[in-house]
């Protein structure tokens, strides 16, 4: 059984995700939080395998929460579930320590697959973001790696350099290369 904690500041969305995931075999919702600070309190009191969190939350945003989770609860895997469909945000989340990134518009089966995947310490990117990132990394094409007013994410800064080697924790597999 995968013990999951949900963190999102929208109660109705959190309740709906909980309701949908409660029907899935092998997944148990063990806690909820409306912001990053409350999430850390829940994690301190509740054995958890996977956190599913939004990036935009009050009190402590998702990226900051991910960094704290990696430091204080290194055994907990983090899956970001966001409405932000730009690969910039996915890259920032992975850089902070998340193991997966899915969109709130993803089908339920993809979100369930994402939870199972990150639980196994395997990198997960939803299809839409994953294809754009792979295209960008392998061909230097596709969607932009930066957003106006934001710096480009670090794995793609110079066009005329050798392809980057993206390191993953030892023993980590990806859903792109199982």
Automatic annotation (TrEMBL):
Annotated GO MF terms: DNA binding
GO biological process: phosphorelay signal transduction system
Modified residues (4-aspartylphosphate): 54
Domain Response regulatory intervals: 3-119
Keyword Phosphoprotein: yes
Domain of life assignment: Bacteria
Keyword terms of this UniProt record: DNA-binding, Phosphoprotein
Protein name as catalogued: Response regulatory domain-containing protein
Source organism (scientific name): Hymenobacter crusticola
Biological classification of the source: Bacteria, Pseudomonadati, Bacteroidota, Cytophagia, Cytophagales
């Amino acid at each position: 059984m995968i013990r999951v904690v949900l963190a999102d500041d929208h109660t109705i969305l959190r309740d709906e995700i909980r309701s949908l995931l409660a029907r899935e075999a092998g997944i148990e919702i063990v806690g909820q939080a409306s912001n990053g600070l409350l999430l850390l309190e829940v994690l301190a009191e509740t054995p958890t395998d996977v956190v599913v969190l939004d990036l935009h939350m009050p009190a402590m945003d998702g990226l900051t929460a991910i960094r704290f989770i990696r430091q204080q609860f290194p055994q907990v895997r983090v899956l970001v579930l966001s409405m932000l469909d730009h690969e910039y945000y996915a890259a920032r989340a992975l850089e902070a320590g998340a193991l997966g990134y899915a969109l709130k518009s993803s089908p339920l089966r993809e979100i369930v697959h994402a939870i199972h995947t990150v639980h196994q310490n395997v990198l997960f990117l939803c299809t839409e973001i994953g294809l754009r990132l792979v295209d960008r990394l392998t061909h230097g094409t596709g969607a932009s790696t930066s957003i106006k007013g934001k710096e480009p994410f670090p794995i793609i800064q110079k066009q005329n350099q050798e392809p980057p080697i993206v390191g993953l924790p030892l023993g980590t597999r990806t859903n792109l290369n199982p």
